[in-house]
Amino acid sequence: MGMMSWLFRRKETAVEERPSEYEIGMRTTPERATHIEYSWQGIDYHHRAVVADIRRMDKEDGRVKRIHNRVARDVTRGGLVLLQATENERIKKEWQAFEQRLELNNAQKLKSDARGLVMEGNLPIQWVLNDAQQVARAVRMPSETIRPNVLPNGQFRDVQTAYAQHDYRSGKDIATFALWQMTLARLDPDNYDDLSCFGRPFMDASREIWRKLRMTDTDLVIRRHHRSPMRLAHVLENATREEMEQYREATEANKDLITTDFYLNKKGGVAAVQGDATMGEIGDVVYLLDSFFAGSPLPKGLMGYTDGMARDILEDLKRDYYDEVDQLQDVLAWAYTQGFRLHLLLQGINPDGQTFHITFAERRTETLSQTTDRALKLQALGMPQSMIWEEMGYNAGDVEKRRTDDAKRYDPYPQTGQKVSITPGNAPKGESATSVSNR
């Protein structure tokens, strides 16, 4: 077959591989399509290199490790909660059993998944079924070994083999997964509709700055070690080599002792040579440190670097950080929702016919007083009580049930409610003040 015939055959094949008559064109960029076509059914080695760099940064630098731990902790704080517009006991029981089997009520499991999402930019979860056709486990897979089985246009070749786990050492696929069997949560992919695009770790764009910062830190220590100590210059006029050697040996023999006197029988002197007086000039280190934290989700001030930072600026940075936390919670909760929907389908329940929402209990990393104050203000605005409980991170049905049980058990005369009033501009920083009184 000639070169021209081969090229024309490739063009015809690309047209025949169009999966839908309603969609035309390519989802991938030309560079991405070429990469997929010539990847020879292998993994994305660029993504693997990025993940390896991030893991090395996490192991060698306490700042990076603390960033990953802090973000994962804030994302999973409070755990998962099922919210329903209309209480459905069966959905509630299925969720409780689902959460128990998959250990989604375990803080370590949630933090491990969140940490993997932050470090790798992806969260591949394999849904493992038991003999009762229930989702029994949610296993987090290493994303650098997962290969989406897609066409050059960015769509799956076959949903029955949507993903594969590839062993780069043997060059073979270890296992294949159907689309229902694996959920891939991606953080900031270049193109969400391009199914071949992986997500990006939070710190992937800061790797070069991190290398320079580490090099500068090492150079700073070496410079201080060699140039900061004070030195002594010994001068012996007209001394022979033998006399100079004897003097040097006698002086250096006692260098570990506190020397207060030097005795010379020739004209000379001992003068102190001060160390480098510019050790405090570390503007280059500060610049690299600022550049590093500019690309991280966590503000520098929250990591303890507060020199020259005003409190109001830190508050603005905290709000921006909370928005990042909310986005991560949405991505993580979406992945668990897919697993729960699969479980409902296996139990004969149509998830589209039910109104429920899985989210994290604490949407913002606020203090308890701030959360309560926000809920009281929403109550003063006339929002439904069930929505207020959901805003605080509680299941409204559980709260009302507990309230009814406690009223029957403990309080024969339950309190009807309180009156909430809002005074605009009567709190610090121009915020509104909240007061509660009995009606």
Molecular structure report:
Residues 415-424 have a biased composition (Polar residues). Residues 400-439 are annotated as: Disordered. Residues 400-411 have a biased composition (Basic and acidic residues). This is Phage portal protein, lambda family. Helix 3 (45-60) crosses helix 4 (62-76), helix 7 runs antiparallel to helix 9 and helix 11 runs antiparallel to helix 12. This protein starts with a helix and ends with a strand. The chain has 13 helices and 12 strands. The strands form 5 sheets. A 3-stranded antiparallel sheet has the order 3-2-7. The protein has a 3-stranded antiparallel sheet with strand order 4-5-6, with no helix packed on it. Strands 1-10 form a two-stranded antiparallel ribbon. Among the domains are: 17-203, no CATH class; 230-274; 366-439, no CATH class. It is α+β, with helices and mostly antiparallel strands and 439 residues long.
